[in-house]
């Protein structure tokens, strides 16, 4: 059985979920796990592309997960291990009626046949549990409004689809496979962030006037935060180096008089600027560069509404 056949079986489950386990070997289950994760990330990638086109509508919504950094191993624990254990226990473990002890207790106390009801409506139940799993990730965002909830099915679309994939693992392969799938999903995300983002310098500007480089951090590094910069008598930047430093604090240090410059995702990063001219590089130009690569919050001046 190839990848296409396994994806076809997963799609059949998505169309009409059932709890009949696949009678396959451990090796075949492992192949389904890999296929499901690949399918999951393929859909997530398409959603990321789609959401990128909606950036003007979504850029003000801040993901609070970006506000806190942990050590590497604490990141693994808090992102890769603990959430799958808790979320799979809540959203996938009860999908099998024999393991849904709450429903069985209710059925016992009220002398009703809930097992028949559960199996008859399993399709809707799987969709509801998957939707609940997806939409609970709305809590990752702050400063939400009505329009945010309109866009929320798109913003958490990857989690909605992942919920269906994990439900397939749980009902067709077994509960432990749902946990392993969730572990794998989160671990891959962490590793991708580390490999392609953590301490990887990206050139923001490199022309005849200045060279500016920046590298984000996905976890805390054992390095004291440091910011140094030199300016000309006119206030232009000759050089700047920030190591393990908050981008917001960089902005605050350079533009003390502008309280409205608030970074949406207050990233901790390494930042380097070297002016190639003796006259230095304008702070205004530097701010424009930062705004091209980082999202600043829209701050409303409360005094503007006063008469």
From TrEMBL:
The chain crosses the membrane at residues 37-58, 70-91, 124-140, 146-169, 176-197. It holds the Pfam family Rce1-like. Residues 72-188 form the CAAX prenyl protease 2/Lysostaphin resistance protein A-like domain. The keyword Transmembrane helix applies. Keywords: Membrane, Transmembrane, Transmembrane helix. GO terms for molecular function: endopeptidase activity. GO terms for biological process: CAAX-box protein maturation. This is CAAX prenyl protease 2/Lysostaphin resistance protein A-like domain-containing protein. It comes from Leeuwenhoekiella blandensis (strain CECT 7118 / CCUG 51940 / KCTC 22103 / MED217).
């Amino acid at each position: 059985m190839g990848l296409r056949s396994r994806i076809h079986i997963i799609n059949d489950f998505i169309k009409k979920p059932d709890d009949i386990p696949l009678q396959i070997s451990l090796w075949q289950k492992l192949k389904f796990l890999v296929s499901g994760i690949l399918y999951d990330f393929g859909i997530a990638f398409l959603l990321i592309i789609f959401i990128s086109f909606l950036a003007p509508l979504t850029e003000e919504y801040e993901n609070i997960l970006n506000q806190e950094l942990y050590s590497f191993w604490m990141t693994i624990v808090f992102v890769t291990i603990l959430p799958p254990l808790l979320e799979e226990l809540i959203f996938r473990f009860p999908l099998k009626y024999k393991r849904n002890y709450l429903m069985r207790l209710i059925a016992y106390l009220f002398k009703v046949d809930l097992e028949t009801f559960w199996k008859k409506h399993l399709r809707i139940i799987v969709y509801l549990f998957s939707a609940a799993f997806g939409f609970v990730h709305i809590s990752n965002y702050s400063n939400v409004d009505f329009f945010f909830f309109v866009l929320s099915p798109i913003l958490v679309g990857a989690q909605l689809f992942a919920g269906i994939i994990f439900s397939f693992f749980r009902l067709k392969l077994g509960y432990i496979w749902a946990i392993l799938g969730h572990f794998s999903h989160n671990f891959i995300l962490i590793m991708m962030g580390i490999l392609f983002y953590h301490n990887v310098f990206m050139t923001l500007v490199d022309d005849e006037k200045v060279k500016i480089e920046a590298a984000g951090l996905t976890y805390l590094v054992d390095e004291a935060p440091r910011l140094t910069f030199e300016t000309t008598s006119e206030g232009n930047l000759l050089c700047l180096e920030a190591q393990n430093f908050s981008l917001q604090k960089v902005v605050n240090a350079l533009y003390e008089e502008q309280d409205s410059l608030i970074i949406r995702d207050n990233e901790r990063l390494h930042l380097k600027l070297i002016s190639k001219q003796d006259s230095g590089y304008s702070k205004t130009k530097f701010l424009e560069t930062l705004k091209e690569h980082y999202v600043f919050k829209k701050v409303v001046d409360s005094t503007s509404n006063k008469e």
